[in-house]
Amino acid sequence: MKATATFISTQKEAPADAEVVSHKLMMRAGFIKRLGAGIYNYMPLGLRVIRKVEAIIREEMVRAGAVELLMPVVQPAELWQETGRFQAYGPELMRVKDRHERDFVIQPTSEEVITDIARQELRSYKQLPRNFFHIQTKFRDERRPRFGVMRGREFTMKDAYSFDRDKAGALKSYQTMFDAYKRIFDRFGLQYRAVAADTGAIGGDASHEFQVIADTGEDDIVYCPTSEYAANIELAEALPLLASRAAASQALAKTPTPGKSTCADVAELLKLPLAQTVKSLVLATDELNAKGDIVKSTVWLLLVRGDHDLNEVKAGKVEGLKDGFRFATVAEIEEHFGCKPGYLGPIGLKKPVKVVADRTVANMADFVCGANEADFHFTGVNWGRDLPEPDLVADIRNVVAGDPSPDGKGVLAIQRGIEVGHVFYLGTKKYSTPMKAQFLDENGKAQPFEMGCYGIGVTRILGAAIEQNHDERGMIWPVAIAPFAVVICPIGYDRSPEVQAEADKLHDALAAEGIDVLLDDRGERPGAMFADWELIGVPLRVVLSDRGLKAGTVEMQGRRATTADIVPMAEVVARVKGHLAA
Amino acid sequence: MKATATFISTQKEAPADAEVVSHKLMMRAGFIKRLGAGIYNYMPLGLRVIRKVEAIIREEMVRAGAVELLMPVVQPAELWQETGRFQAYGPELMRVKDRHERDFVIQPTSEEVITDIARQELRSYKQLPRNFFHIQTKFRDERRPRFGVMRGREFTMKDAYSFDRDKAGALKSYQTMFDAYKRIFDRFGLQYRAVAADTGAIGGDASHEFQVIADTGEDDIVYCPTSEYAANIELAEALPLLASRAAASQALAKTPTPGKSTCADVAELLKLPLAQTVKSLVLATDELNAKGDIVKSTVWLLLVRGDHDLNEVKAGKVEGLKDGFRFATVAEIEEHFGCKPGYLGPIGLKKPVKVVADRTVANMADFVCGANEADFHFTGVNWGRDLPEPDLVADIRNVVAGDPSPDGKGVLAIQRGIEVGHVFYLGTKKYSTPMKAQFLDENGKAQPFEMGCYGIGVTRILGAAIEQNHDERGMIWPVAIAPFAVVICPIGYDRSPEVQAEADKLHDALAAEGIDVLLDDRGERPGAMFADWELIGVPLRVVLSDRGLKAGTVEMQGRRATTADIVPMAEVVARVKGHLAA
């Protein structure tokens, strides 16, 4: 393709609202154009990348036995009412009424619609397993759209849905998708991790996120460099750092800690390790009556070590907190602890609270905690002696780098990632049971489908790829999803007939090899031309000039390279092929 | 591909709400599945056809120099307010508010958005001409969605938009698109006509519809079999059928025509040709004041020959009717004509009306018309003698078959068509001027873009193709857009190892030739298997059986053929290729 046959529009400056590098570079390189908050036009170069991403996904989905169809963007609310999601989904769900005042949604996903198809089309166990997917426009009315395509409102997603006769089948379908996703992300040429993830509100038992590694990612990925273990921070299990509780060796003492309300400040003041302190977090749960009024509230004290952080997802799995919790109000705290936040602890409570200790805290001895009196902490605190054993012991903290790996095969490391894919075992509860989506088994008995769902954020891939691969000059695309694999930059294309003829010839020779090559025929000056293609991030550049041609050579330079190779004209095609295959 | 790798789900009966054959067949063949009124899931076989249609469109658009991008489905209302379409567009425009109560539309087309892109990106005449297109989901909230994909609410459309510096350039862009559309429809393998069309409310000067010929079409296409002339009925010019007015030869006479209120009844009663009668149609126009109240109404009498029909689009072009008209009320008619509808005519009016005669009526002599008295008509009516000359003479009727062609090269014929494409010269008034979309010319002066827009209803193509190509057994697809070009039907695939081996071998051999072949590996019985593929309309079927293989032959049968050819195994690939290329 020639540059004049597509549309290239680069800018020196990114708009002020672009906060992250991928957003800035996509705007500057003319990949996207803002239409509204979180809504973008995909300009020709951006669309080329999208199409390549889609093609890889499509090929691997089909290879894995999934069948493509296309479900509508605008979906009747009735189906969403069957699962309760029409009510339960927050304002992210864009709701709309048609001219007859009937309710519709702009789809954020298509579980209801595919389940509706399945309950009509899949009548017998003989038709199972079955996996349908589509690549379609989605809309989520984000409260604060930002980061360009990373958290947009309208985006393209591939979503697949599997239907199986039993859990074993569903887990096999899940594994098939997991393997397909690995092939897809391998083919993208991105560094990624498949991490075990929490199943969250959607329910189900098995879940993995595919995270593209990037320092700018929003998610913490926990992994063990010496084993296969990988999970997101919400799920990664924190083992107790103390195998057992040591005997008490200090007396309980109330120590003045004026103005030191954080564990770090207290540890510094007392010249103790931070790991000797315990942090108090106060939650509350409410019991409601049928009218939705609060009839009783319970206050909870959660204890994690001073150098650890509470993991709210894990807290939400503690017996008694499963149905939802909130942070306690200051009034509730004062009522139960007799003290304002900052000096709270489990000793000397005014009213009963439920005490949940993190596994590590439960094994601590001689620890430090707030004294429930402003400007005082206790030191030398010991379970059993100074206060009752905790009501519950649970894993309620985030792991930190250096923690033992849950698989016992090393210690954990943490890196940042961007979630671009998700595979999810759904089971029967969320969709097939409420929608009465059933098949007949061998005995003629109706059984609900065991389901799984599998998403890839197509447009988000672009942002993630750029966050991972860029430098101060611009984007750096992996060959498989680059807008063009090779750009030919002829110097003086508009002036030198020889340069023009050789550039055209090289273009045709590379195109004939099936290489996605662009010839820059715009007649730009070398500096501006090179800057454009570095910004756009084409992986390989071939420069033709009168001087080079006289010597029978061209210059070839990979996007990450700092110098060019001088390549004899006769070898260019082979060298380009070799470079792209590497 | 093997049948078990896709999803085949056929039905004997179409649902009751399917009125037209394409809707029935698409439902029965499992191409679409209803999700709501006018909203369909595209099932795997239907989606295959869509993808082939899209690929052909995309190739020819790119060949014609258009550049693909992707504009959002959900579009901010602000742009639509700039052109006034947010207010002016009827309830077909799906309007929606986001969580912040901001207005959006679900796009039915993208003129505003592309014009917004152009005014930002195309700053100089040097960047022109430019043509952008996208293939995207559209939504139109039809009052009465029906006919399956023919008049659905959500559908896929290719829309292209050209930007030029002047009208000559815009008309050249228009011609380029016109030529590209011809290539596209040629490649689809459908019978079609490009017909000149009215430019309607959208404005502009040049417009052609691409109509797929089908007896079940909703549009009348007018064409001249002996010339290139083709237009839709709204536009096709009706020349006067009488070159000049004959001298009066009859006296005016009031004749009783009791109960005969139509021209046909009157002609029969009086034993006169229908072409001797004149039909009266009464319209009204209103003048409004600034508040929108009617301050004055004018009544119009439009006269067409008894065997002709009023063309409301043409009437709307008559001086005085251009700003909109309505049919007169019965009260207005009685006030001006002194008579109820049924016996109206231009003679003996109670109050002044504006009389518009069709070109043919203006040249009639000794004609028959209503006498403005119930149960009476005048005969022997002559202009000038019995009534004043008409206020206006204009082309206000539909052409009929046999009318002279406006190009003077023969007589007109009429056939039915389905509009699937439209090319449209927009000019500057509708979008570029109100949106201040301008470029700088050579003199540094800002000029509005001369625009054109060009649509193809992607999903509608499926319905139109089926309306044109089907028989009692099902659809008949042209090779280029068939879900599969060839189906291999092995008899006893699940029982006979030899049949299975040969079928697999033939599948691979055809696939290796780049032929889109499906092997039916479901193990269905021949009757059901053949019925499925006839319903689905695959253009060519190859049947393998043990008996045939013993003789070294297969049976090959085109979808329209009534008998099969016996083809030696060694020749099958060549014969299939030959058949598909034919």
UniProtKB/TrEMBL annotation, chains A, B:
Xref: InterPro entries: aa-tRNA-synt_IIb (IPR002314), aa-tRNA-synth_II (IPR006195), aa-tRNA-synth_II/BPL/LPL (IPR045864), Anticodon-bd (IPR004154), Anticodon-bd_dom_sf (IPR036621), Pro-tRNA-ligase_IIa (IPR002316), Pro-tRNA-synth_IIa_bac-type (IPR004500), Pro-tRNA-Synthase_IIa_type1 (IPR023717)
Keywords for the protein's UniProt record, in alphabetical order: Aminoacyl-tRNA synthetase, ATP-binding, Cytoplasm, Ligase, Nucleotide-binding, Protein biosynthesis
Keyword Methyltransferase attached: no
UniProt KW Ligase keyword: yes
Reactions it catalyzes: tRNA(Pro) + L-proline + ATP = L-prolyl-tRNA(Pro) + AMP + diphosphate
Coiled coil ranges: none
Record-annotated Aminoacyl-transfer RNA synthetases class-II family profile domain positions: 33-478
Alphabetical list of Pfam families matching this protein: HGTP_anticodon, tRNA-synt_2b, tRNA_edit
GO MF term (any one): ATP binding
Record-level GO cellular component terms: cytosol
GO biological process, alphabetically ordered: prolyl-tRNA aminoacylation
UniProt subcellular location: Cytoplasm
SUPFAM superfamilies found in the cross-reference section: Class II aaRS ABD-related, Class II aaRS and biotin synthetases, YbaK/ProRS associated domain
PANTHER family associated with the record: MITOCHONDRIAL RIBOSOME PROTEIN L39/PROLYL-TRNA LIGASE FAMILY MEMBER, PROLINE--TRNA LIGASE
Family: Belongs to the class-II aminoacyl-tRNA synthetase family. ProS type 1 subfamily.
Complexes and interactors: Homodimer.
Task of the protein: Catalyzes the attachment of proline to tRNA(Pro) in a two-step reaction: proline is first activated by ATP to form Pro-AMP and then transferred to the acceptor end of tRNA(Pro). As ProRS can inadvertently accommodate and process non-cognate amino acids such as alanine and cysteine, to avoid such errors it has two additional distinct editing activities against alanine. One activity is designated as 'pretransfer' editing and involves the tRNA(Pro)-independent hydrolysis of activated Ala-AMP.
NCBIfam families to which the protein is assigned, alphabetical: PRK09194.1, proS_fam_II
Free-text comment about domains: Consists of three domains: the N-terminal catalytic domain, the editing domain and the C-terminal anticodon-binding domain.
HAMAP family in UniProt: Pro_tRNA_synth_type1
Protein name, UniProt field: Proline--tRNA ligase
UniProt organism field: Rubrivivax rivuli
Gene name of the encoded protein: proS
